[in-house]
Amino acid sequence: MIDITLLFNVFSKALIILLSGFLISKIASMSLLKIFKEFNVDENINKILKLDINYSELFSKILEIIIIIIAFIYSINELNVLPIIAFIFSLGVILVFLILFTISISNYLTNFLSGIYFRKNITSNKIEINREVYNIVSKNIFDIEALDKNKIKHIIPYSYLSKHKIKLL
After folding, report:
1. What whole-number distance in Å separates Cα of residue 74 and Cα of residue 55?
2. Class of residue 153 by CB neighbours under 10 A (exposed 0-12, middle 13-18, buried 19+)
């Protein structure tokens, strides 16, 4: 059976930690803001960087957010669910990296597979793409290096060639 007083004590400790974190964050933020205003940090940084940004408020808000995050983590730790939340968070991070990795691999894979076809079938040194003539300098794994009529070097991915009409000249 669950002890109600123990449960109340745990939740009250977590709530006290969270509320004290909010209070400490506000006090620290206002103190940092006063210190920055006293030493004219905004004017000094804006003279150096030539930007019109209110750095004192920016840094005080960043400090406030960091303290609130720390208080939130401590309150979750008091509830003894931090390992579960950390595990779920790490799974989310891994999932995002896997999605980004898959997207980047798909771009390289389309260029590589198109390159296998085009490297074998492009035999001349001149190619016409969308009514513009290019002189091929070299064929790489993922792209072609070519010069246009003005002798400007272009790097043309093979996947671009597969999406447009090309003529061998």
Report:
1. 29
2. exposed
**Token pair recorded at residue 18:** 């969270």
- Distance in Å from the first CA to the final CA of the chain: 85
Query: Which residues, in sequence order, are bridge partners of residue 138?
Result: 145
pLDDT of res. 5: 85
- Judge whether 21 and 68 are in contact, CB under 8 Å: yes
Q: How far apart are CA 86 and CA 78, in angstroms?
A: 14
Confirm whether pTM is higher than 0.90. Answer: no
Separation of alpha carbons 17 and 26, rounded Å: 14
SS3 label, residue 146: strand
Confidence at residue 90, expressed as pLDDT on a 0 to 100 scale: 92
The rounded distance, in Å, linking the Cα atoms of 82 and 90 is 12
